[in-house]
Structure formats: C-alpha cells, structure tokens
Amino acid sequence: MTSVSTPPARVPVEERLFSLVLALLATDVGLMKNDILKTVHGYSQKYRDGHDNANLERQFERDKEDIRELGVPLETIDSPSDPGNNQLKRYRIPRGRYELPEDITFTPEESTLLTLAARVWREGSLSAESRRALTKLRSLGAATTEPVIGFAPRVRLGDLAFEPLTAAIDRGVSVRFDYLKPGEHAARTRAVLPLALVNYEGRWHLSARELDSGTPKMFLLRRIVGKVTSGQPVDIPPGDHVAEAVARLDALATTQFADVEVVPGSDAALRLARRTTAEDIGPNRLRLHFVDRAILADELSGFGPEVLVLSPPELREAVRERLERTAELHG
User: Fold this and answer.
1) What residues contact 221, with CB distance under 8 A and at least 6 apart?
2) What does each C-alpha distance from 116 to 150, 154, 166, 168, 222 come to in angstroms?
3) Disulfide engineering: 301 pairs with which of 170, 313, 316, 322, CB 3.0-4.6 Å?
4) 187 in Cβ contact with 225 (< 8 Å)
C-alpha cells in the first residue's frame, strides 16, 4: 500500500518571523542559510535535504527584508575563506544593538494594549505592519497581562476576498478572480499581482497590476465574485503601495464630483453634509466628491425624494433608474 505524504501545516508569517528573530539573537557567530532553513520553525517543516529548496530560499530572502524593515539590525557576515559565497554567509542579530534603549520601557498594561492593537488589525489594511510590530514586541520580551489577551477583539470583514488577498500580498504571489462591473451581465476573470488593500470611504479596495500588461488597476472587493485563487510568486515592485493606492483614490475623488440639492433638516442633509469630501456650494446644495459613480448612485437613491441630483447627468440618470426600479418592485 502506497503512503500519501501529508503537506506540512502552514505556519503564520508572524510566527515564522518571530522564530527567525529569536534564532538570530541566540547566536554569536551567526547561522548559515542552510542551517536556518533546516532548523528554524517555519522553514524546517518545508525543507527537504538533498532536494531543491529554491522557493524556501526566496522566502528567507523576503523575510530578511521584512525583519530589516522592523529596524532590526540583521548582520551578514562573509566567509573569510570564500567571500561573496551566499551559501557560506552567516546571519546574526547583535543583541546589544537590538535591545530597547534604557530610557524606554513598557509596563505590562502598555504592552497589552500594543498587542491588542496589533491583533485587532490582524485582518485589516495594516495586517502586515501590525504583525511585524507584534513580532518585534514579543522578541523584545515585553511582558503582557495574558488574561486580557485572551479576550482580544478582532475586526471582522464582510468581503470574503479579503483574507485570500491578504495572504497573497504577504506571500508575494499572483491571484485570479472573477470581477463583475456595474452594467455588465457576466463577470470577467482577472489575473493580477496584488499590491495593497486599502479602506477608502468605508469600502475595501485592492490595488494591483495586470499580469500581462503591468497596467495599474483598482478593484472594489465587494465586486469580486467567487473564489480568489493564488498563483505563482512574482517579483514585487518597490514602493509604498498603500500610500500610492490612497493617492490614486484621492486624485480620482478630486476630479469626480456631484452637485446635489437636499431637503433642509432631512436625513440626507445631515448625513451627506458630514461626508469628509462634502462642500457647501449654496443654500441646501452640496458638492460630493466620489470615486465610484455606481456606489454613489446607490447611496443617493436610498434617500428617495430628500435628494435631487443636479449634475453630472450620468449620475442623475443612474439614480432615476434605481428609483424607478424600486417603484416597479413595490407595485
């Protein structure tokens, strides 16, 4: 009877980084890459002696950069007998350069709050950053009040695509998904390199690049239908992709706006005036900047007769269509 090998259990990114930091802190002479891959938790489960471990080596290279982004002084030591040989290089973290300054300390309560903040954002747009912050706190030995940690809150998201996209961004792999745009009757399959997830005006957006053309794209998560599937590792272009995504959305909102008239004292008047992008342009009139016309049409039609769209005409028509459809559905 042929035995079937069970794939190793997935080790979370923050757990692997934590184990790597501890291992490099514990050595004075440093560890070679092969030693790390064979022994450190998160790598050793996938390491195969005598086989090609190229994917694992690339993962280690990405993790090194993640650790350095934490501000951790990861040192590379060349072999005296063969300088420049990557396989003989040693890696270490000098404990004296890594420890917190003597005038900076955290009480257990402060460490608890920092840890809770990181865990709250475990599924949020700061996912990778918060995980790294939590890794650094743990590796510094910061004490926490464990009973409180057991009741750590967590942000839950309604968009089912969020978790697989977050995992793909952390791993640096491409994804495929079906995307249904407003006005289209069938979804189209998109193959992209995911770069960042950002929450803008209360909605999650994916900033990505098309695999074939490299064209920058922005996708609204609520329009992703079906399952998100991961592909192969792809070289991630450098840059602050979250900041770039927000800047693109800000630029779009600056150029797109709608002028509306609202009934004084109505729910629409109160709610729309509180939007961060709303401008008062006259008696009972507001200018609303937006990034997605279909979403704004949905929102404005929900106010019924409390809102009159003055411009642009495309938005006015979209709101009217929604109101007529609602009237038909309700007889």
Assistant:
1) 159, 161, 162, 165, 197, 203, 204, 205, 206
2) 10, 9, 20, 24, 28
3) 322
4) yes
Helix 108-120 vs helix 127-139: crossing angle, to nearest 10:
150
Taking the C-alpha atoms of residue 148 and residue 150, their distance in angstroms, rounded to an integer, is 5
HEC string of 146-204?
Answer: HHHHCCCCCCCCCCCCHHHHHHHHHHCEEEEEEECCCCCCCCEEEEEEEEEEEEECCEE
Q: How far apart are alpha carbons 158 and 156 in whole angstroms?
A: 7
The sign one gets for the Cα dihedral 42, 43, 49, 52 is: positive
Sign of the C-alpha dihedral computed for residues 174, 180, 183 and 185 taken in this order: positive
Q: Rounded distance, CA 130 to CA 172, Å?
A: 18
Decide: 74 and 22 in contact? Cβ < 8 Å.
no
User: Is the pTM for the entire model greater than 0.85?
Assistant: no
For residues 127 and 134, give the distance between their C-alpha atoms in angstroms, rounded to a whole number.
Answer: 11
Give residue for tokens 């929604």. 322
Burial category of 125 from C-beta neighbours within 10 Å (exposed 0-12, middle 13-18, buried 19 and up)? buried
H-type alpha helices, the chain? 13-25, 33-39, 54-69, 95-98, 108-120, 127-139, 146-149, 162-171, 241-255, 267-273, 293-301, 313-329
Beta bridge partners of 213: none
- What is the amino acid identity at position 260? V
Q: What are 186-228's pLDDT values in tens digits?
A: 999 999 999 999 888 878 899 999 999 989 999 999 999 989 9
Instruction: Report the C-alpha gap between 145 and 130 in whole angstroms.
Output: 19
**Window from 11-15, 50-54, 91-95, 181-185 with minimum mean pLDDT:** 11-15
pLDDT digits (tens, 9 = 90+) for 266-305: 999 988 998 878 999 999 999 999 999 999 999 999 999 9
Alpha-carbon distance of 59 to 55, in angstroms, equals 6
Strands 285-289, 278-282: parallel, antiparallel or unpaired by DSSP?
antiparallel
CB 79, CB 86: distance < 8 Å: no
Distance of CA 172 to the CA centre of its chain: 12
